[in-house]
Every structure is written in C-alpha cells, then in structure tokens.
Specification:
single chain; 150 residues; alpha+beta; 3-stranded antiparallel sheet; 6 strands
Length: 150
C-alpha cells in the first residue's frame, strides 16, 4: 500500500524571497539625500567654474588670415597670434586637401616678444609659415596655439 505524498511545509514568501535575493535595502534618510544632493551640486558648480576660467587663463588666441599654395608640395599659411608680450607660443598649422584630409602639418615656435610701441603693446604678431605637403593643398589653417615653457 502506498501512502499519498505529503505536501512539504510551505515557507513564508518573505523568507524564501529573502533567501533568494537578499534582504531589502535600507532607504536613505531625507536629510542624507539633501546633503548628497548639495554636495553634488557644489562639485558641479566648481567644475563648471574651473572649465570656464581655464580657457581664459591661457590668454593665447589666433586668427587665420589667409593661405596660398605655390605647388603640390608647399603651402603658406598667414595668421595672427595674440598673447602676452613675454610669452613664447607654439602653434600647430595644417594644410588640407579638397576632402579636408590633412596633407601637411607643422608646429611653429613663436618667440616671446617685447612691447614694441604697437597699438596693442606687442601682444599680436603676424606669422607666415611654409608647410610642406604631400599633395595639393586647397586650404591652410591654424589648428591650435598654446603657451610654451621654452
């Protein structure tokens, strides 16, 4: 004679879920949420202030004036650099082809200048740079300029 199957003792649903997934997480108190939110806001404002002032501290700017291509191996780029008179500057100049691919690249050293009686006290200097190219360039521009420590 066989005995009917005895059902297993059911465990409470809360206990079986806790065993499977772990216990519930504790919630964060409202005061702690406010402190964390304020700290995150302060960090965000500090970061934005740093980003906005770091660009203005460099005080080096440039302006493309023109370019000319003499042949398929040489392009000349004219530009102006504005910086403090005693600051040496480096500028990256590039020549581009008709598909905007870089066909020539040169880093130029601009020595520190003195205030030579110009209207802006020698802050702005004009430069003409010859850039060797690997194919015919249809444009020449300054990519970036930065203050160097040389």
């Amino acid at each position: 004679m066989t005995l009917p199957d005895q059902p297993a003792q059911p465990t409470p649903a809360d206990t079986s879920l806790a065993n499977r997934y772990g216990t519930q997480k504790r919630s964060i108190k409202p005061g702690t949420k406010r402190i964390l939110g304020g700290a995150a806001l302060a960090v965000g404002i500090g970061f934005l202030a740093w980003v906005s002032t770091s660009q203005s501290l460099s005080d080096v700017s440039f302006k493309d004036v023109g370019y000319s291509t003499t042949d398929a191996t040489l392009a000349e780029v004219d530009f102006q650099v504005t910086r403090e008179p005693g600051t040496p500057v480096k500028c990256a100049v590039k020549a581009l082809d008709s598909k905007f691919a870089i066909v020539g690249w040169k880093v130029v050293d601009i020595p520190p200048g003195e205030g030579n009686g110009t209207a802006d006290g020698g802050r702005t200097v004009a430069q003409r740079v010859a850039v060797r190219t690997e194919s015919l360039a249809v444009s020449g521009v300054v990519d970036s300029c930065w203050a160097s420590n040389a």
